[in-house]
Design a protein that fits this description.
The complex is a heterotrimer of chains A (330), B (423) and C (285).
Chain A (H helix, E strand, L loop, with lengths): L3 H6 L17 H36 L2 E4 L2 E5 L3 H8 L1 H37 L5 H9 L6 H11 L6 H8 L13 H16 L1 H12 L3 H9 L4 H12 L1 H16 L3 H7 L12 H10 L9 H32 L1
Antiparallel strand pairs in A: 1-2
Helix pairs in contact in A: 3-4, 3-15, 4-8, 4-9, 4-12, 5-9, 6-13, 8-13, 9-12, 10-11, 12-15, 14-15
Chain B lengths: L1 H21 L1 H6 L6 E7 L5 H14 L3 E7 L5 H10 L6 E5 L28 H6 L11 E13 H7 L7 H13 L3 E3 L6 H16 L1 H8 L8 H13 L12 H9 L3 E7 L2 H8 L5 E4 L12 E11 L6 H11 L2 H11 L13 H9 L3 E3 L1 H5 L7 H13 L5 H13 L8
Parallel strand pairs in B: 1-2, 1-3, 5-6, 8-9
Antiparallel strand pairs in B: 3-8, 4-6, 4-7, 4-8
Helix pairs in contact in B: 8-10, 8-17, 10-18, 11-12, 17-18
Chain C lengths: L1 H4 L11 H28 L3 H6 L11 H9 L2 H32 L5 H11 L8 H11 L5 H24 L5 H8 L4 H9 L4 H17 L2 H6 L8 H11 L4 H21 L1 H9 L5
Classes of the chains: A mainly alpha (330), B alpha/beta (423), C mainly alpha (285).
Chain lengths: 330, 423, 285
């Protein structure tokens, strides 16, 4: 990054255009050059095509077939798609899981992204100890979801868990709950564990966004008599719009791909009675079977995966475009 | 194919004997040369040490074959197994589930068996053999290994301390629970946070009230799960929940086991497979057991029984004849006895001698049993009866559904594929 | 040292009420962030009974039975080694292939250049998790199921887009003069890349490495589906097996979690600046 300035002087020269190679135009040299470029670019492309693009294309096509376990059957057109969206027992589960994903997205928007934004502002103000807090807030981000899930599952145990013992200790024993055991608190508890895990991410993305705001702007706002809060909402918030775009898009993708944390904390069935069931769990259960039965169904599983992928891709693109326009408008 | 396997097996055996004689001197000192390594996959991680013993016993007869026991987390086992089988890999010998698709999806992945290949099938009761028959083609694929019984396990010391005795009727059970609770003892260690526990609770506590006749009527298409016998039993269960573990809705399987094993709870509604778990966690426990209490004195008292699974041969195995030898060993009363006594599990093999008094008790209770209804009959298609019952009961015990709603929900779900319910 | 960083006329004086509130809230948040980790470590030095009876007490740190048991009787050490192998190899491949691709895209103009760049960029958005079923069947056909090498290839493919994005962005900023001078001296293209351009590219490589190391090390989903043999399991996957085996022994559980968390935590504390930069790279312009 220290070379930014020099490169900035002559952006058109960042590429080696043929014109720069006046001295040598013989075709042998050119062929050798082409071979060199191919040598560089073909292996990474081959990796991507083989292990990312191809499986995704196959997922798309195999969703149009009937599957018996892991064996492909006959072509059934859109049958699998209509089953998971409108069919007998699939549809209710699909839409229930979808609603839960929506809830997770909005709840995380508040407790993870908004909290992250505020925390970023507190750090940006550089109060006493801000360097330490910046490191602390990012610490859980590096831990694995499996670890975070088990840790919070132990903490949330209704009888021996830390949370209930803490409530007891500070005299709020009446608030003790079987957190993961009741419909009303299970999904919120998972959301809180997720926020604990990830809040550092939006916080530090926002912090970087804030640090790019020219200091003069904030100084001018201060001279105009803006309070800290006004400065935050009226000056900083619009100016960190690019950070909002990126954190919101990533949050959306994450919320609809949610799998590991509910898998560890609530089990594959989204216990209790499906109140934590999300699309990721439902997809996995449909495709690979659950513990009670283990029936596998790749056809409907793939149909779900394709629908999820299309939904995520379309909405993520729309969000990005809308927010980009907002960035410019602000 | 069968003939081929047998011929090869005879040839191999003959060759093996030759080799053994020839290298007798060498093998006295060294480990058997050219031992064939078989792998066995299981979801019973806790059985590893016992299997080492069984395999040792097997090797006394077949020193040329070695068996490697590999176990997986039960929750991941279906994925692990079917992905391996679909991938044309996997072990030589597969521990499979019972009923429906035996947990492997398709018959092609396993070698079909019969009494000429495995004469030891004679040692099993018909219900056990039926359990390892695949629903889609009616062929037999596995040597059954254990029956499990759903019953109520109790802590004898705690019962004595509270001055109560094992109840026979439902009202007595409620009274016993009440007394225990008054004396500061949690009556049941059970929690409902882990889905499948809800099904075991129903099997253990309600079988006598649901009854064999109900099961027959369901299978004959004469009754469904909105039947008063079923719904009524669920309603009784709903009355008992205040005697479960504190905050039972948030208590998962592990925590509920711990309640009982640590001596905090007096009873546990669950499978006979818990006996070994409890004793391992707390060897000082004095355990007793009883079948689900009857609604009124004189009714037939029942436990719920199912077969856990069996051992099958992977169709992709390259050592099928060696695997067959091991399978035949797994069907002998000798193995059945060792299995039962080391793992505290009931082997269905006739002529097994139970050393353990607890197992004798379980075996005695098994004389009067109905099947563990959802697992045995409705686990072959989604939504399985088990999944429906589990979430329904979990919901009911959380106070979010009535017994009648659970019955209707279960009937509706099974009705999507079970013709008699489609009305 | 903190005073030195303060500009002479700070926007937000530290004694102002706003800053004090901010400081207090940050302290609260940091406690929230760190206390669970501290409790986890404390509990690892306790017996299950102590955890239940005195969950908040400071333990006797000489009680290490949980750790010695994990070392002696569980497979966690093996899982740990597998994770090191898999993450290390994936990173090496990601950096190798990613740098190659990025170098071609950044330093040469050829037909399809921008299309290929867009292709990799699109890869940033593709959720490979949803293609796990065909990926599974494909790995089966390649004979890569239940192998560490199979996982390494998947992680490499998944890591390439972000690496190419970061590396291309950086390599484009390098001036052409150096390269031209070398070319006039008769240096070959590979020579220019290896001895002139790449030595300058270490910082973005570190960023790319960290950005991929953390999710690869922590991944649970792909091993869950692809790895079956206990001896090949990774740490997060093995952790779930371990948690299943010792469900009722909370001392062991916390010790296992602590061991699993330890390596990355220590590296993070030492290199927090690079970690933060690495993991937010791409999200921060």
């Amino acid at each position: 990054m220290r070379l930014d300035k020099r490169a900035g002087l002559s952006p058109e020269r960042c590429f080696n255009r043929p014109g720069l190679m006046k001295t040598d135009y013989r075709s042998r040299e050119r062929r050798r050059r082409a071979a060199w470029i191919a040598f560089l670019i073909v292996p990474p492309m081959a990796m991507m095509l083989t292990f990312v693009v191809w499986p995704l294309l196959v997922a798309l096509s195999s969703a149009f077939y009937r599957w018996e376990g892991m064996a492909q059957g006959e072509f059934v057109g859109l049958q699998n798609f209509s089953d998971v969206l409108f069919g007998d027992h699939f549809a209710a589960l699909t839409w229930r899981a979808f609603r839960h994903n929506l809830f997770v997205f909005f709840a995380l928007f508040v407790v993870q992204n908004t909290a992250g934004f505020l925390l970023a502002w507190f750090i940006y103000r550089e109060p006493f100890g801000f360097r330490f807090h910046r490191i602390a807030i990012f610490m859980p981000v590096i831990l694995s979801t499996v670890l975070v899930g088990f840790l919070w599952k132990l903490f949330l145990d209704p009888n021996f868990g830390l949370i209930n013992q803490l409530l007891e200790m500070i005299g709020l024993g009446g608030l003790r709950q079987p957190w993961l055991g009741q419909e009303t608190t299970a999904l919120p508890a998972l959301v809180m564990a997720n926020a604990w895990h990830w809040v550092g991410f939006p916080a530090l993305v926002y912090l970087a966004g804030m640090q790019r705001i020219p200091r003069e702007i904030l100084e001018a706002a201060k001279l105009d008599g803006c309070s800290g809060w006004q400065m935050l909402t009226r000056v900083v918030w619009p100016l960190v719009a690019p950070s909002t775009t990126i954190t919101l898009t990533l949050l959306f993708i994450g919320a609809f791909n949610w799998f590991e944390l509910p898998y560890i904390m609530a089990g594959l069935d989204g216990s209790p009675y499906g109140s934590t069931d999300v699309l990721g769990l439902y997809f996995y259960r449909t495709a690979f079977g659950n513990q009670s039965g283990g029936l596998q169904d790749f056809g409907h599983g793939n149909a779900l995966a394709v629908l999820m992928f299309m939904f995520i891709a379309v909405v993520a693109t729309l969000i990005t475009q809308y927010l980009r326009r907002r960035e410019i408008a602000l | 194919m069968l003939a081929g396997v047998l011929t090869r097996s005879i040839l191999r055996r003959a060759l093996g004997k030759l080799a053994l004689t020839a290298f007798a001197a060498a093998t006295v000192l060294a480990a058997p040369v050219q031992a064939e390594d078989l792998t066995l996959w299981s979801w019973r991680q806790e059985d590893k040490a016992a299997y080492a013993k069984f395999i040792e016993a097997f090797r006394k007869k077949h020193p040329d074959i070695n068996v490697k026991f590999e176990a997986f987390e039960a929750a991941n086992y279906p994925t692990v197994l079917s992905t391996a089988l679909a991938g044309g890999t996997g072990p030589d010998i597969v521990q499979v589930r019972a009923y429906g698709t035996l947990g492997v999806g398709k018959p092609d992945y396993l070698v079909p068996l019969d009494k000429t290949m495995v004469p030891e099938f004679e040692n099993f009761p018909a219900s056990a053999v039926a359990a390892e028959t695949m629903r889609s083609d009616g062929k037999l694929y596995a040597v059954p290994f254990a029956s499990q019984t759903m019953l109520i396990i109790y802590n004898k010391d705690l019962f004595e301390k509270a001055g109560v005795t094992p109840p026979a009727t439902w009202d007595e059970l409620v009274a016993v629970s009440k007394t225990l609770k008054e004396k500061g003892i949690t009556p049941f260690g059970n929690g409902t946070a882990t889905s499948w526990q809800n099904e075991t609770i129903v099997g253990a506590l309600l079988s006598s009230q649901i009854g064999k006749q109900f099961e027959q009527d369901v299978l004959a298409g004469k009754a469904d799960f909105t039947d008063p016998r079923f719904v009524g039993a669920l309603a009784k269960l709903n009355e008992l929940k205040e005697y479960f573990a504190p905050n039972f809705s948030g208590v998962d399987y592990a925590a509920s086991q711990q309640f009982f094993a640590a001596g905090r709870a007096a009873m546990f509604a669950g499978g006979s497979f818990e006996l070994a778990n409890f004793l391992r966690q707390n060897p000082k426990l004095k355990l007793g057991m009883f079948a689900s209490p009857v609604a009124k004195a004189g009714d037939e008292r029942l436990v719920a029984l199912y077969y856990d699974g069996g051992y099958a041969i992977n169709a992709a195995s390259k050592k099928k004849d060696a695997a067959l030898k091991f399978l035949r060993f797994l069907g002998t009363p000798e193995f059945g006895t060792a299995f039962s006594n080391d793992l505290q599990n009931i082997s269905p093999i006739k002529g097994v001698k139970f050393e353990n008094p607890l197992l004798k008790e379980v075996a005695a209770l098994n004389e009067q049993a109905m099947s563990y209804i959802m697992l045995v009959n409705f686990r072959y298609q989604e939504p399985t009866g088990s999944v429906l019952l589990q979430s329904g009961v979990q919901k009911m015990l959380a106070g979010k559904a009535t017994p009648a709603e659970v019955g209707a929900e279960v009937t509706k779900g099974i009705g999507t594929y079970y013709a008699p319910f489609k009305k | 040292m903190t005073a030195k960083a303060q500009s002479p006329d700070p926007l937000f004086p530290r004694s102002s009420p706003g800053s004090l509130i901010a400081a207090a809230l940050l302290v609260g948040n940091s406690v929230l962030m760190l206390y669970p980790i501290v409790i986890m470590v404390f509990s690892a030095f306790k017996t299950t009974g102590e955890i239940f009876d005195a969950p908040f007490s400071i333990p006797d740190f000489t009680y290490v039975a949980n750790f010695t048991r994990i070392w002696g009787e569980t497979s966690l050490p093996g899982y740990f080694i597998n994770s090191v192998i898999i993450t290390g190899s994936s990173l090496a491949l990601i950096l190798l292939l990613g740098t190659m691709g990025a170098y071609a895209l950044a330093r040469y103009d050829f037909p399809g250049n921008s299309a290929i760049f867009m292709f990799f960029l699109a890869g940033l958005m593709l959720p490979l998790k949803l293609a796990v079923i065909p990926l599974f069947l494909q790995m089966r056909d390649f004979g890569l199921l239940d192998t560490r090498f199979g996982l390494i290839l998947i992680y490499t493919a998944m890591g390439l887009p972000s690496t190419i994005f970061i590396m291309t962005g950086f390599l484009r900023t390098l001036p052409t003069e150096l390269e031209e001078a070398a070319r006039i001296d008769g240096a070959s293209e590979p020579r220019i890349m290896l001895s002139i351009m790449l030595p300058l590219s270490v910082p973005p490589m570190v960023i790319s490495a960290i950005q991929n190391a953390v999710p690869t090390w922590n991944d649970f989903f792909f091993p869950l589906v692809f790895i079956q043999t206990d001896a090949r399991k990774t740490l997060p996957q093995g952790l779930s097996v371990f948690m299943g085996e010792y469900t009722t022994d909370w001392g062991m559980l916390f010790a296992g979690l602590t061991i699993a968390a330890l390596p990355l935590t220590i590296i993070y504390i030492v290199m927090s600046r690079q970690f933060i930069r690495g993991m937010t790279a791409g999200a921060v312009k």
